[in-house]
């Protein structure tokens, strides 16, 4: 090993690996630098647990010929036989190093080692990466060097690891922050908060197609079923809408009990209004079909079917931080949001699933049925309301 090169790597990591703009590039460049310093690496794995509602962790696997391959695993991995019979399971469970000289016949019989031997690997070591909160993560290092790693090479590797772990932790904290913001307030709001828009009253005006939906009969449902069942139903009900909204360029801003508020941003000059409203309408049809197909059965076998109401409108909304003291909410308000809420109530009275304002209906090429003009509480003038031409009134539940 070259001591000067090793010192350069540690300094580079300590300075934030600024020449590598992404985690994958940082990992690749770090391995390349270690090889240049004299460490004969063949395959390197970094395994990081994460704080995400669906993802248990991420794997960064580096090889000289392929660079870094990134993958993620869900929570089922904890019970998967291939993981439980792997050396990494031991690292995560006990926080210990696992070293195996694969060219020696007495190697610990992990099935994974057979694959490594087939690739010509002679030595394997898995080393815990411990973050400041004592959460365990893991790294694995292999070589094809005859005889395996030397003690000098392993000592050099372990000299670099603490600094590498700190940088991975910093990158991980930022990723977790972004993930949590995206999960709880949405991508657009999360980006603004992370960008520094954190003060009360820090708002901006945005033109958008507004989506406001509500589950019909939710109060009676909540009274009739156990709370655990209601939560499960709500999650499945929102699963009918959220993927469609995200797929077509919308952003979910808020869940309000059984209500959902989303926006589809429109350019300030209104040039893409027709396109955006068309995307919102595509999401509407997909969500409506999904809710229509949703079924839920209780312990006695009684089947529940569901209906929802959805109002679509276009207008300017005030988008930003609203709240009291140090408890803020990043959301949108304004007359356009209020009108959408009133329209959703009208949808219920007319036994319609989808209704739209004249502003939204005029922006699309879809056939609409004029449902009439209705006075809107809190608004000076009545609003003409439209329903989808291919949708009739639904019977009351």
From TrEMBL:
PROSITE patterns: GUANYLATE_CYCLASE_2 (PS50125). InterPro entries: A/G_cyclase, Adenylyl/Guanylyl_Cyclase_3/4, Nucleotide_cyclase. One of its GO terms (biological process) is cAMP biosynthetic process. Residues 209-344 form the Guanylate cyclase domain. GO terms for molecular function: adenylate cyclase activity. SMART domains: CYCc. It comes from the Bacteria. Gene3D superfamilies: Nucleotide cyclase. This is Adenylate cyclase.
């Amino acid at each position: 090993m070259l001591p000067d090169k090793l010192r350069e790597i540690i300094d580079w990591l300590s300075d934030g690996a600024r020449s590598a703009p992404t985690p994958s590039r940082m990992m690749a460049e770090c391995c390349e630098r270690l090889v240049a310093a004299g460490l004969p690496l063949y395959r390197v794995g970094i395994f990081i647990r994460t704080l995400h509602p669906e993802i248990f962790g991420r794997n960064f696997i580096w090889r000289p010929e392929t660079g870094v391959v990134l993958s993620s695993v869900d929570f089922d991995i904890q019970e998967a036989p291939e993981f439980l019979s792997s050396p990494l399971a031991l690292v995560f469970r006990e926080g210990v190093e696992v070293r195996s000289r694969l060219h020696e016949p007495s190697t610990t019989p992990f099935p994974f080692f057979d694959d490594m031997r087939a690739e010509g690997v002679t030595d394997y070591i898995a080393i815990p990466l411990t973050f400041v909160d004592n959460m365990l993560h893991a790294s694995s290092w292999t070589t094809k060097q005859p005889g395996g790693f030397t003690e000098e090479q392993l000592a050099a590797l372990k000299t670099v690891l603490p600094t590498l772990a700190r940088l991975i932790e910093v990158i991980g904290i930022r990723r977790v922050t972004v993930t949590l913001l995206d999960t709880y307030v949405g991508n657009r709001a999360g980006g603004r908060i992370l960008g520094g828009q954190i003060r009360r009253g820090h708002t901006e005006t945005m033109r958008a197609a507004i989506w406001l939906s509500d589950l019909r009969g939710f109060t009676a449902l909540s009274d009739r079923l156990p709370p655990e069942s209601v939560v499960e139903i709500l999650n499945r009900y929102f699963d009918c809408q959220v993927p469609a909204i995200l797929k077509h360029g919308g952003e979910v801003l808020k869940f309000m009990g059984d209500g959902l508020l989303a926006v589809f941003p429109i350019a300030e000059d209104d040039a893409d209004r027709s396109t955006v409203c068309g995307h919102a309408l595509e999401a509407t049809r997909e969500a409506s079909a999904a809710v229509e197909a949703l079924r839920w059965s209780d312990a006695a076998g009684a089947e529940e079917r569901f209906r929802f109401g959805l109002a679509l409108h276009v207008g300017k909304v005030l988008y930003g931080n609203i709240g009291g003291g140090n408890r803020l909410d990043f959301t949108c308000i304004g007359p356009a949001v209020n009108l959408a809420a009133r329209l959703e109530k009208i949808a219920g009275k007319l036994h319609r699933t989808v209704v739209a304002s004249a502003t939204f209906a005029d922006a699309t090429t879809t056939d609409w049925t004029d449902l009439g003009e209705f006075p809107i509480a809190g608004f000076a003038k009545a609003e003409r309301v439209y329903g989808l031409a291919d949708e009739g009134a639904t019977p009351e539940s």
